[in-house]
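A quick word before the example. In earlier lectures we treated sequence and structure as two separate objects. From today on, think of them as two lines of the same record. Here is Phage tail tape measure protein written that way.
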Amino acid sequence: KQLRDSGKASTEQIKKASNATKQQRQAHQNLVEQYKKERATVKQLSDRHKELKGQNDKVKQSYKQSSAELKNTQNQHKKLNKEIQDYTKNQAEAVKKINNEKASLNNLEKAIEKTSKEMKLFNKEQALANSHFTKTADKFDKLSDSYSRFGMGLQSVGRNMSMYVTTP
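And the structure line, produced from the sequence above:
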């Protein structure tokens, strides 16, 4: 009986051991299947990570380039604003200088015109003074004055005659 009991016990232990082995084998197969799935998922995630890293590097490079271009554009904008501000100031100064130059030019033209007239008058006077006809011209001027007075007198006489003598 002991043997039987011990054989039953052994058979039962073998069955239990066999069931436990089957369960372990099934659990092991499940773990292997889960490991394969997880490994595939890790591979996919790794590939996706590499892809995203590449895209991230491209975005970083694009960001650096855009940032550099933005800084350059900002510097150009500042420079243009300064030029515009300076332009208004420089334009006002230029207008003031132009007006001053115009006034100077007008004054110079007036001075030249006055000097030219004086020079012509001086040359005329000099020519008359140096001429031997000056004395004769003076005599004719005096004679002209006396003839003018004589002519006025005759004109007055003629007027009186026509008004008083011929008028009834």
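Notice the following. The mean pLDDT is 83. We will return to this example when we discuss secondary structure assignment.
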